[in-house]
Design goal:
The chain is of the alpha/beta class. It has a single domain, classed as P-loop containing nucleotide triphosphate hydrolases (Rossmann fold, 3-Layer(aba) Sandwich). 56% of the residues lie in helices and 12% in strands. The protein has helices spanning 13-24, 39-44, 46-71, 81-94, 100-114, 130-140, 150-165, 186-200; strands at 2-7, 27-29, 75-78, 122-127, 171-176. The chain has a 5-stranded parallel beta sheet, sandwiched between helices. Helix 3 runs antiparallel to helix 4 (81-94). The longest helix is centred in the first third of the chain and has 26 residues, at 46-71. It is globular and about 45 Å long.
Protein backbone atom coordinates (compact mmCIF):
# COMPACT_ATOMS: atom_id res chain seq x y z
CA UNK A 1 0.00 0.00 0.00
CA UNK A 2 1.21 3.49 -0.91
CA UNK A 3 0.05 6.41 1.27
CA UNK A 4 1.21 9.95 0.46
CA UNK A 5 1.07 13.14 2.52
CA UNK A 6 0.68 16.41 0.57
CA UNK A 7 0.66 20.03 1.68
CA UNK A 8 2.33 23.40 1.52
CA UNK A 9 5.72 24.27 3.08
CA UNK A 10 5.29 24.10 6.86
CA UNK A 11 1.94 22.28 6.86
CA UNK A 12 3.30 19.36 8.94
CA UNK A 13 3.87 16.69 6.27
CA UNK A 14 7.08 15.29 7.73
CA UNK A 15 5.67 15.23 11.28
CA UNK A 16 2.51 13.40 10.21
CA UNK A 17 4.53 11.00 8.03
CA UNK A 18 6.69 10.10 11.06
CA UNK A 19 3.70 9.64 13.39
CA UNK A 20 1.71 7.47 10.95
CA UNK A 21 4.81 5.47 10.01
CA UNK A 22 5.35 4.69 13.69
CA UNK A 23 1.68 3.85 14.35
CA UNK A 24 1.20 1.53 11.37
CA UNK A 25 4.82 0.28 11.08
CA UNK A 26 4.89 1.65 7.53
CA UNK A 27 8.23 2.41 5.90
CA UNK A 28 8.60 6.18 5.50
CA UNK A 29 10.03 7.97 2.44
CA UNK A 30 10.98 11.58 3.19
CA UNK A 31 11.61 14.61 1.05
CA UNK A 32 15.25 14.96 0.11
CA UNK A 33 15.91 18.34 1.77
CA UNK A 34 19.13 17.77 3.71
CA UNK A 35 21.10 16.42 0.75
CA UNK A 36 19.44 18.57 -1.93
CA UNK A 37 22.33 20.45 -3.62
CA UNK A 38 20.09 23.22 -5.02
CA UNK A 39 17.86 24.36 -2.14
CA UNK A 40 20.14 27.01 -0.62
CA UNK A 41 20.98 28.41 -4.05
CA UNK A 42 17.31 28.44 -5.02
CA UNK A 43 16.20 30.53 -2.04
CA UNK A 44 19.09 32.96 -2.69
CA UNK A 45 18.34 33.32 -6.42
CA UNK A 46 15.05 31.68 -7.46
CA UNK A 47 15.21 32.74 -11.10
CA UNK A 48 18.65 31.26 -11.67
CA UNK A 49 18.06 27.94 -9.90
CA UNK A 50 14.33 27.20 -10.27
CA UNK A 51 14.65 24.83 -13.25
CA UNK A 52 17.59 22.93 -11.71
CA UNK A 53 15.72 22.51 -8.42
CA UNK A 54 12.52 21.29 -10.04
CA UNK A 55 14.36 18.78 -12.24
CA UNK A 56 16.20 17.50 -9.17
CA UNK A 57 12.90 17.03 -7.29
CA UNK A 58 11.23 15.41 -10.31
CA UNK A 59 14.05 12.88 -10.67
CA UNK A 60 14.22 12.22 -6.92
CA UNK A 61 10.47 11.66 -6.53
CA UNK A 62 10.13 9.57 -9.67
CA UNK A 63 12.83 7.24 -8.30
CA UNK A 64 10.99 7.17 -4.96
CA UNK A 65 7.68 6.11 -6.52
CA UNK A 66 9.37 3.45 -8.66
CA UNK A 67 11.12 2.09 -5.54
CA UNK A 68 7.86 2.18 -3.56
CA UNK A 69 5.98 0.13 -6.14
CA UNK A 70 8.87 -2.33 -6.58
CA UNK A 71 9.26 -2.91 -2.84
CA UNK A 72 5.82 -4.46 -2.34
CA UNK A 73 5.83 -2.95 1.18
CA UNK A 74 3.45 -0.57 2.90
CA UNK A 75 4.99 2.86 2.37
CA UNK A 76 4.10 6.38 3.49
CA UNK A 77 5.62 9.19 1.41
CA UNK A 78 6.31 12.78 2.46
CA UNK A 79 5.17 14.93 -0.53
CA UNK A 80 4.23 13.69 -4.01
CA UNK A 81 5.56 14.10 -7.53
CA UNK A 82 2.24 15.76 -8.46
CA UNK A 83 2.92 18.73 -6.17
CA UNK A 84 6.08 19.56 -8.10
CA UNK A 85 4.28 19.45 -11.43
CA UNK A 86 0.91 21.03 -10.55
CA UNK A 87 1.96 23.52 -7.87
CA UNK A 88 5.65 24.44 -7.56
CA UNK A 89 6.80 24.48 -11.20
CA UNK A 90 3.74 26.34 -12.62
CA UNK A 91 3.91 28.80 -9.73
CA UNK A 92 7.57 29.58 -10.49
CA UNK A 93 6.65 30.01 -14.16
CA UNK A 94 3.73 32.34 -13.44
CA UNK A 95 5.92 34.45 -11.12
CA UNK A 96 8.48 34.87 -13.91
CA UNK A 97 11.02 32.79 -11.99
CA UNK A 98 11.15 30.00 -14.60
CA UNK A 99 11.28 30.71 -18.34
CA UNK A 100 8.55 29.39 -20.64
CA UNK A 101 11.16 27.30 -22.47
CA UNK A 102 12.28 25.63 -19.23
CA UNK A 103 8.71 25.17 -17.99
CA UNK A 104 7.61 23.50 -21.25
CA UNK A 105 10.66 21.21 -21.12
CA UNK A 106 9.88 20.35 -17.49
CA UNK A 107 6.17 19.73 -18.21
CA UNK A 108 6.99 17.46 -21.14
CA UNK A 109 9.33 15.41 -18.96
CA UNK A 110 6.72 15.11 -16.18
CA UNK A 111 4.05 14.05 -18.67
CA UNK A 112 6.29 11.21 -19.87
CA UNK A 113 7.21 10.14 -16.32
CA UNK A 114 3.63 10.26 -15.05
CA UNK A 115 2.52 7.84 -17.77
CA UNK A 116 4.61 5.19 -15.94
CA UNK A 117 3.31 6.04 -12.47
CA UNK A 118 0.49 4.74 -10.34
CA UNK A 119 -1.21 7.22 -7.99
CA UNK A 120 -1.08 6.66 -4.18
CA UNK A 121 -3.77 4.41 -2.71
CA UNK A 122 -4.57 7.25 -0.30
CA UNK A 123 -3.56 10.91 -0.50
CA UNK A 124 -3.68 12.87 2.78
CA UNK A 125 -3.81 16.63 2.15
CA UNK A 126 -2.83 18.95 5.01
CA UNK A 127 -4.73 22.21 4.53
CA UNK A 128 -3.26 25.20 6.41
CA UNK A 129 -3.68 28.98 6.28
CA UNK A 130 -0.65 31.21 5.66
CA UNK A 131 -0.38 32.30 9.36
CA UNK A 132 -0.25 28.63 10.43
CA UNK A 133 2.40 27.88 7.78
CA UNK A 134 4.52 30.85 8.88
CA UNK A 135 4.28 29.87 12.55
CA UNK A 136 5.37 26.28 11.81
CA UNK A 137 8.16 27.36 9.43
CA UNK A 138 9.56 29.71 12.10
CA UNK A 139 9.26 26.98 14.73
CA UNK A 140 11.52 24.56 12.85
CA UNK A 141 14.04 27.32 12.03
CA UNK A 142 15.62 26.20 8.75
CA UNK A 143 17.96 29.01 7.64
CA UNK A 144 17.13 28.78 3.93
CA UNK A 145 13.38 29.19 4.68
CA UNK A 146 13.81 32.55 6.43
CA UNK A 147 13.51 34.38 3.12
CA UNK A 148 10.24 32.75 2.00
CA UNK A 149 7.73 35.53 1.26
CA UNK A 150 4.10 35.53 2.39
CA UNK A 151 2.84 36.07 -1.16
CA UNK A 152 4.81 32.99 -2.26
CA UNK A 153 3.07 30.83 0.39
CA UNK A 154 -0.31 32.36 -0.52
CA UNK A 155 0.15 31.57 -4.22
CA UNK A 156 1.15 28.00 -3.38
CA UNK A 157 -1.94 27.61 -1.17
CA UNK A 158 -4.19 28.76 -4.02
CA UNK A 159 -2.62 26.20 -6.35
CA UNK A 160 -2.94 23.43 -3.75
CA UNK A 161 -6.65 24.16 -3.36
CA UNK A 162 -7.15 24.19 -7.15
CA UNK A 163 -5.32 20.84 -7.51
CA UNK A 164 -7.14 19.16 -4.62
CA UNK A 165 -10.55 20.35 -5.85
CA UNK A 166 -10.06 18.31 -9.05
CA UNK A 167 -8.03 15.39 -7.63
CA UNK A 168 -9.60 12.09 -8.71
CA UNK A 169 -6.64 9.71 -9.03
CA UNK A 170 -7.42 7.84 -5.80
CA UNK A 171 -8.80 8.17 -2.29
CA UNK A 172 -8.37 11.58 -0.65
CA UNK A 173 -8.39 12.60 3.02
CA UNK A 174 -8.29 16.35 3.83
CA UNK A 175 -7.00 17.41 7.27
CA UNK A 176 -7.52 21.04 8.37
CA UNK A 177 -4.31 21.83 10.22
CA UNK A 178 -5.46 25.24 11.52
CA UNK A 179 -7.91 23.60 13.92
CA UNK A 180 -5.73 20.83 15.36
CA UNK A 181 -2.27 20.08 16.76
CA UNK A 182 -1.74 16.40 15.94
CA UNK A 183 1.98 16.58 16.82
CA UNK A 184 1.26 17.31 20.49
CA UNK A 185 -2.31 16.11 21.02
CA UNK A 186 -2.71 12.29 20.92
CA UNK A 187 -6.52 12.56 20.67
CA UNK A 188 -6.31 14.69 17.54
CA UNK A 189 -3.77 12.31 16.03
CA UNK A 190 -6.18 9.49 16.93
CA UNK A 191 -8.95 11.22 14.94
CA UNK A 192 -6.70 11.30 11.87
CA UNK A 193 -5.78 7.63 12.36
CA UNK A 194 -9.48 6.70 12.55
CA UNK A 195 -10.11 8.50 9.25
CA UNK A 196 -7.08 6.82 7.64
CA UNK A 197 -8.39 3.44 8.83
CA UNK A 198 -11.81 4.18 7.36
CA UNK A 199 -10.29 5.11 3.99
CA UNK A 200 -7.95 2.12 3.90
CA UNK A 201 -10.69 -0.33 4.80
CA UNK A 202 -13.17 1.19 2.36
CA UNK A 203 -15.66 2.71 4.76
CA UNK A 204 -15.67 6.01 2.83
Amino acid sequence: MHIAVAGNIGSGKTTLTKLLSKHYSWKAHYEDVDTNPYLNNFYEDMQRWSFNLQIYFLNSRFRQVVDIRKSGKDIIQDRTIYEDAYIFAPNLHSMGLMSTRDFENYSSLFELMSSFLQAPDLLIYLRASVPTLVRQIQKRGRDYENSIRLDYLKRLNERYEAWISTYNSGKLLIVDVDDINFSENPEELGDIINKVDANIHGLF
